Amino acid sequence: MGKAGKALRLVLEKHGISQNRLAVTMGLARSTVNQWFHEITDPSAESVTQIVAALETLNEAAAKEFIALYLGRIAQDTETDNEPQP
């Protein structure tokens, strides 16, 4: 399936965040997060923004890593664009 599920799985495992904890923070059923985690379904674009918001609440480093894994180069380009210019 999609890149979001892989990124989510890696981040949750690395940062010790349970699927249930993410689901509760997002106000969703754990089965929804489980389907993303196991790449059965892909989260919608709106859900991806909610995942980031929930991860920011739980662990800011996890949120940043999810964005980097999911968006890859796009996230890096955005960070570079936002850096102050000499």
TrEMBL record:
It comes from the Bacteria. SMART domains: HTH_XRE. This is Helix-turn-helix domain-containing protein. It comes from Drouetiella hepatica Uher 2000/2452. GO terms for molecular function: DNA binding. Residues 8-61 form the HTH cro/C1-type domain. Pfam families: HTH_3. InterPro entries: Cro/C1-type_HTH (IPR001387), Lambda_DNA-bd_dom_sf (IPR010982). SUPFAM superfamilies: lambda repressor-like DNA-binding domains.
